[in-house]
Design goal:
297 residues; TIM Barrel; two-stranded parallel sheet; 11 helices; 42% helix; globular
């Protein structure tokens, strides 16, 4: 038995003393074709009405979400991801140090040791991606960016040496993410997790060989530039994810997210693109298999 996670998501509302709706949204209509959640954090607890791992997987199966990429983005999360993927057939793992972890570890003098442990974990067969790594200029100021750049470069190198996909976190750092990728040379398979750019940035990523993964943010009312980007992505480069327990799709924004809610995102994506839902699910299912070392083939 692996230990169930105990880390709880800290919310702005909790810090301010207010209370948001923490109840689980109702299950949507299942998808007509299996699809994978390309980015999930089952190890992060969100509220009292929390799914255990087996409950989350069962709810996902009911929605026709048959595979999940469990992402560990600090050392405890990475260890847990490897353990969980070793136990549950529906899971594979991605492991890395989140860009906001890098400055903290550098300040402690432990960044080298942490990256060495990530490399050891990444060598496991259940690990199919190095991620989420990248840059985050929203939560890290100028003083921490050098550590983020170093960590990102070393994760790129690790993905290439191990032949794993690279999963990139990019928040308010589009130009520097692509600059560093160009300088280091991107791996054969790489994913922009929770793609957050417009159509122009999407083209720049696609020109470099990226797969673009869309989360519940694409359903938000203020996300028209993101929907414009979605509309121009070739069908063989699209992925879908939750980033659960974060980024719950409309109309449940702010409530706890989980893989079973992907049908809400998928149906909006198909509508934006003018695609048949089943056809788009089938394409994403194939793309997922391709990105993660022929996972499930």
């Amino acid at each position: 038995m692996i230990e169930e996670p105990t880390r709880k998501r800290a919310t702005t509302e909790e810090k301010s003393g207010s209370r948001r709706d923490m109840s689980r949204p109702p299950a949507p209509e299942p998808l007509p074709h299996p699809v994978a959640d390309n980015h999930c954090h089952l190890d992060i607890v969100d509220g009292d009405d929390w799914f255990g791992t087996e409950q989350a997987l069962a709810a996902a199966r009911e929605a026709n979400i048959t595979r999940i990429v469990q992402v560990g983005c600090d050392l405890p999360g990475a260890r847990w991801a490897v353990q969980a993927a070793g136990r549950y057939d529906e899971l594979v793992a991605a492991v890395a140090l989140h860009p906001n972890e890098a400055p903290k570890l550098a300040a402690e003098g432990t960044l080298d040791a942490a990256i060495a442990e990530i490399e050891e974990l990444a060598g496991n067969d259940v690990v199919r991606a190095v991620g989420e790594t990248g840059l985050d200029y929203f939560r890290t100021d100028e003083s921490g960016r050098a550590a983020q750049h170093e960590s990102f470069r070393r994760h790129i190198d690790l993905a290439k040496r191990l032949g794993k996909a690279l999963m990139i976190h990019d928040r308010d750092a589009h130009d520097d993410v692509l600059r560093i990728l160009d300088e280091e040379g991107a791996p054969e398979r790489w994913v922009m997790h929770c793609f957050s750019g417009d159509a122009d940035f999407a083209r720049r990523c696609l020109d470099r060989g990226a797969h673009l993964s869309f989360a519940g943010t694409v359903t938000f009312k203020n996300a028209q530039p993101l929907r414009d980007a979605l509309a121009i992505v070739p069908k063989d480069r699209i992925l879908v994810e939750t980033d659960a327990p974060f980024l719950t799709p409309h109309p449940y924004r702010g409530r706890p997210n989980a893989s079973y809610l992907i049908p809400l995102t998928m149906r909006l994506m198909a509508d934006v693109r003018g695609d048949d839902v089943a056809d788009l699910c089938a394409a994403i299912d194939v793309n997922t298999t391709t990105v993660y070392e022929n996972w499930g083939a």
